[in-house]
Amino acid sequence: PGAAPGQESSTERRVRVPPGVTVFDSASWNGIAIDSTCGGHGTCHKCKVQVSGSSPITRHDARTFSASELESGWRLACLVQATRDLEVLVPPLTTRPKAATVGVGRQVILRPAVQKRYVELEEPTLEDQATDLDRLLAAITDLEPRPDLHALRRLPKVLREGDFKVTAVIVDEELVDVEPGDTTATRCAIAFDLGTTTVVATLLDLVTGTPVAVASMLNRQQPFGGDVISRISATMMDPDALGRLQTAACETLAELAAQVCAEAGVDPHAVYEVAIAGNATMTALVLGIDPEPLGVAPFVMTTALPPSVLAEDLHLGVHPRARAVFFPALGAYVGGDIVAGMLASGMDRDKRTRLFIDVGTNCEIVLSDGDRIVSTAAPAGPAFEGGAIRCGMRAADGAIETIRLGDTVELGVIGDVEPRGLCGSGLVDAVAELVKVGLLDASGRFVPEADAKEIAPALHDRLTMIGQERVFVLHRPTPGADPAECVVLSQRDVRELQFAKAAISTGWTLLLEELGLEHGDIAQVLLAGSFGSYLSAASAVRIGLVPKLPVLRIVAAGNVAGEGAKMALLSVRERAGAQALLEEVTYVELSDRPEFNDRFVEQLSFNGG
Ligand code: FES
User: Fold this and answer.
1) Which of 380, 395, 455, 452 is CA-nearest to residue 429?
2) N or C, which end of the chain has less CB nearby within 10 Å?
3) Which CDD domains match (predicted)?
4) 376 and 429 housed in the same domain
5) CA-closest residue to ligand 1 atom 1
């Protein structure tokens, strides 16, 4: 479903979110600020929005709104779920929050590394020849910044041009600039989720803690291959490729930075810090570090803790002394994006047993029992991104994303257009539904023709052949169209999905064993990332991609990597929390476990899970 909240009455946005996500989370994931002090827990009663159509009235709504307000659609945003297309009116913020809601309901007290202090200084005289710097530093009473050369070069001129009324810009306890007059109201940063496929930028107002613009685009490294392995291979085959990949990543970030600044009407020089959350390969490539050791056994990173660099060195076009900070990585395949995601989902703060799964070509899995945290990576292959699937495609217009089988076939298609193919969530749905109606057996084989007729009389004629292979027709462009022209699920596609899901479920099964836990101990499963968030929880449970739990315990977590990057910019304490995860989380290598193969074979079955 879509929600169309506007940040102000004059701004309209269309956004797409996973079904069942609250309006509050939908807005937050898309950079639209809604008033809140409780972080979406239904207790502050501040997240007032006006929703189209009729939505259930909770007791909190009844206590917050008058009868006529309820009648005209006013609800608390954190209690309304987007289960259909919604139009949502979001009033402008009434208060400047000292805390911001980020990630999976995390409340972040604002303590950015970027600080500004406005000072009015006494002008020097022959009796008072204190240096410009001493004069400035003496006026800043609560911080003791170290000056950098850029600031010193600007200091004499700016002081005198500004009649000794200036604003000191301090980033991470370093004086990086002085600006004439009082510029304290303008203090921005950009959070980047540097994905292998898609890159997302969020411009944050650090004064209020609110996102002011969001933009995304495909990573310009695409021509080098769709996944990290092909990009690493490119650097191994061509000595110039590393430089070109670095340039492509930097250009992507710079273009997005320009875009979000333009959208918000913010001078790019008011962006004093950026945070970049990416997997280990993306992080190495954007820094120009040779990624080859990440791609070959024993899969070693150059460093787990990349240093912060000047954004200027990455040509990001923001303030010349802005810093670009990175997240630490736990391993070659559990990178900074996952650490950012753990931060955003509070994996280290929650006492409950929680399982975090970022489903993708490389699937990262984290399990916490509230005390110990273990993580691993599972090579799931490209099936979820539509790779190696006969009619597979990315989640774009024309992709079938939901499927329900009954007497008819109900398809949900992105963009409400003619179906062209099947994206990852559609693939999971297709297999889960075919298992449910009995046309696929537990081993993942289509049942024999004769049985199909009896099991699903309304559907059995969709089971047909293309060449030597059995397929199930999901969509016929015209009645009687040749199966080769239809959108189908083939027997081989089912096998691909089986291998992908078995890799993932073997991962979490072994992590559960590592901590001596069982399925039932898990209080919450967080499905993260652009693909995981759109998966149907019921289908994921049915095929055993996630543990067999009530679907209410399975939660779409959204783009948690980007949310973690925001948190690192909003609070130095949260940033330190991300560093601490390096010590707290144990990375478990599973592929060399003797029990790995046995578990993998068990998990291939659709009765497994
Ligand atoms: Fe506090 Fe909704 S965010 S009640």
Assistant:
1) 395
2) N
3) fer2 (cd00207)
4) no
5) 44
Which protein residue's CA is at the shortest distance from atom 3 of ligand 1? 40
pTM to 2 decimal places: 0.85
Grouping H, G, I as helix, E, B as strand and the rest as coil, residue 278 is strand
Q: What whole-number distance in Å separates Cα of residue 609 and Cα of residue 603?
A: 6
- Whether the per-residue pLDDT at 6 is higher than 50: the answer is no
Instruction: Domain count for the chain, please give it.
Output: 5
Has residue 422 been placed in a domain? yes
Dihedral, 593, 597, 600, 602 alpha carbons, nearest 10: -120
CATH number at residue 291: 3.30.420.480
What ipTM did this prediction achieve?
Answer: 0.99
CATH number of the domain that residue 159 is part of: 3.10.20.880
45 CA → ligand 1 middle, Å: 5
For ligand 1, is residue 102 a contact (CB within 6 Å)? no
Query: In the listed set 68, 95, 122, which residue is the last one of a domain according to the structure?
Result: 95
Task: Determine phi and psi for 418, rounding to 5 degrees.
Answer: -60, 130
The CATH number that applies at residue 70 is 3.10.20.30
Show the domain range for 435: 386-493
Question: What CA–CA distance (Å, rounded) separates 513 from 516?
Answer: 5
pLDDT band of 573, cuts 50, 70, 90: confident
Instruction: Please report, for the domain that includes residue 504, its CATH number.
Output: 3.30.420.40
**36 touches ligand 1 (CB under 6 Å):** yes
Tell me the C-alpha distance between 560 and 537, whole Å.
18
Q: Are 220 and 248 within 8 A, CB to CB?
A: yes
**Residues comprising the chain, all counted:** 609
From 461, 493, 525, the end of a domain falls on 493
* Cβ neighbours of 329 (radius 10 Å): 27
**Ligand 1 neighbour 76 (Cβ under 6 A):** yes
The percent of residues above 70 in pLDDT, for the chain, comes to 97
Instruction: Please check whether residues 407 and 506 belong to one and the same domain.
Output: no
pLDDT confidence tier of residue 227, bands split at 50, 70 and 90: confident
Residue the block writes with tokens 């956004």: 15
Confirm or reject: Cβ of 2 under 6 Å from ligand 1: no
User: Does residue 402 share a domain with residue 264?
Assistant: no
Question: What pLDDT is recorded for position 245?
Answer: 97
Per DSSP, helices labelled H in 217-265 are 228-237, 241-264
CA distance 470 to 495: 12
* C-alpha 524 – ligand 1 centre gap (Å): 21
Torsion from C-alpha of 301, 307, 308, 310, nearest 10 degrees: -100
DSSP 296: S
